Amino acid sequence: MGIHRLNHAVLYVSDLARSVAFYRDVLGFRPVAMTPDGFRGATFLQAPDSTNDHDLGLFEIGAGAGPSTAGRATVGLYHLAWEVDTLDELEATAGRLAAAGALVGTSDHGTTKSLYGRDPDGLEFEIVWLVPAALLDDTALEARKRIGRLDLDRERQRYGGQTRGGVGISVPA
């Protein structure tokens, strides 16, 4: 089976309107009209600049739903990672997440620069910029073996704020 990308993810949420507002207002996802007739309690969203018909499905299970215990008491998904094109966009996303009280961490994995956030139900996700293949060097490759503190200003000076990430890695050269 030759997988070449994640097409979409589906999440169970407690409050559909609240979750749609978060993914729309903070991350820029837009609702797409594809919910089957007569089906209630679901919304499908497309990420900005995505070519997928949808990237995220949200299914409401109600306010009585308990928090996910995945990784603490049960097996389950830890997080999804979405890729942005530039370090400027990563920085802008960090600001929006912080303003929403949803930024829970950052990290530098050498070849990837990452933000971590939580949605209104506490489900974690990652927003990542990948160093383009042509800019990979021994320092970046060696740093994959550790998790460092992300210094976005330093990374923008090193790679440029508008350098397209992932080229030759996740994006064809």
Main features:
single chain, 173 residues, alpha/beta, four-stranded mixed beta sheet, 21% helix
Describe the structure.
This protein is α/β, with parallel strands linked by helices and 173 residues long. Helices cover 21% and strands 24% of the residues. It has 4 helices and 8 strands, in the order βαββββαβββαα. It has a 4-stranded mixed sheet, covered by helices on one side. The protein has a 4-stranded mixed sheet with strand order 5-8-7-6, covered by helices on one side. Strand 7 (112-118) and strand 8 (124-130) form a beta hairpin. Helix 2 (87-99) runs antiparallel to helix 4 (152-159). The protein is globular, with a radius of gyration of 17 Å. It starts with 8 loop residues before the first strand and ends in a 14-residue tail after the last helix. The mean pLDDT is 93.
Quick description:
This protein has 173 residues and is an alpha/beta fold. The protein has helices at 16-25, 87-99, 138-142, 152-159; strands at 9-13, 30-32, 42-46, 56-60, 80-83, 103-108, 112-118, 124-130. The strands form 2 sheets. Strands 1-4-3-2 form a 4-stranded mixed β-sheet, with helices on one face.
- Main sheet strand line-up: 1-4-3-2
Report the biggest beta sheet as strand number plus sense, adding barrel if it closes. 4 strands, mixed
Order of helices and strands: EHEEEEHEEEHH
Average the pLDDT over all residues and give the rounded result.
93
**What is the radius of gyration computed over CA atoms, rounded to a whole number of angstroms?**
17 Å
Distance between the termini: 23 Å
Q: Quick one: overall form?
A: globular
> Number of helix segments?
4
Q: Assign the structural class, choosing from mainly alpha, mainly beta, alpha/beta, alpha+beta, or little secondary structure.
A: alpha/beta
Oligomeric status: single chain
- Tell how many strands the DSSP assignment holds: 8
Estimate percent helicity.
Answer: 10-25%
Strand percentage: 15-25%
Low-confidence parts, pLDDT < 50 over ≥5 residues?
Answer: none
